[in-house]
Amino acid sequence: MLYKIQFFIQRLFGIQKLNRNLNENKVLVGKLLLRQNQEDAQQIIQDIKKAEFKVFSQWGDDGIIQFLVHYLDIKPKTFIEFGVEDYLESNTKYLLINNNWSGLVLDGSSKNIQKIKTDPIYWRYDLTAECAFITRENINEIIKRNGFEGNVGILSIDIDGNDYWVWEAIECIDPSIVIIEYNAVFGDKRAITIPYQPDFYRTKAHFSNLYFGASLPAFVDLGIKKGYHFIGCTSAGNNAYFVRKGLEKDLAIKSIDEGFVQSKSREGRNQSGQLTYVSGNSRLELIKGLEVIDIKTGQTQSI
Predict the structure, then answer these.
(1) Which of 47, 61, 158, 207 qualifies as a FRET site for 199, CA 20 to 30 Å off?
(2) Considering the chain, what percentage of its residues have pLDDT values greater than 90?
(3) How far is 50 from 177, CA to CA, in rounded Å?
């Protein structure tokens, strides 16, 4: 669908004009795809993966987010996203540019934050960017000092490490939608997370780069405790979506068995830092024996 629409735009406006402003052309493509999603709404409320399209998101999150914010009429139109790197790929950039939402983005690299602040989007839109290495001890203070408290539209968490512990710790905001990266390599049976370490760094923790975050069952359990329905995952098997109870309308609430998607990503590395392209269950073998916490019992276990 995306390629057909892009071809249509090229024929309509000409290739030279299409290449003049990449961001504007991407936004136009997204608008056309959203129109198609609105026509297919009855299918999407049963399976959010059917809404996927990519504009600035790494995978198909832009489409899912656009459908949800229109279908649910989310207010206020604000977002908080952390783990954005230089913001070239993110879950909220399309919201910022296309929907004129306001938001806060956080990343642990000062170089990345400086790049965001020197991009024209920083003066064109209501965006705040701050360099911060996020922990469960500092996350509430960081959010509050940037002017966010109470209801917010979207919270997106992707820090490749203490994601479970940070979401658990957040108390100062009440997002309508939460998007969080889960570690599909951990499977769909055990509610587990890495042990909390304030200075956790994925590559340093294990050379494979596969030991991070938490399983989908751990996040679903936490979502229930915090008052959220689990409504599904991306087809890439990386992000899980939660909607605050009472806002879901007719969206299908998913069980873990119904909503889990196993990733096909082959990002595992060897001890020299080179990609090995290991896939499937072989990824789990690389981290077998490492410690995880069973969030239901609080006990330390081995993968």
Answers:
(1) 61
(2) 84
(3) 18
Q: What is the pLDDT of residues 96-112, one digit of tens each?
A: 999 999 999 999 999 99
Residues in the chain: 303
- Write down the pTM of the prediction: 0.90
For the stretch 118-151, pLDDT in tens is: 999 999 999 999 999 999 999 999 999 999 999 9
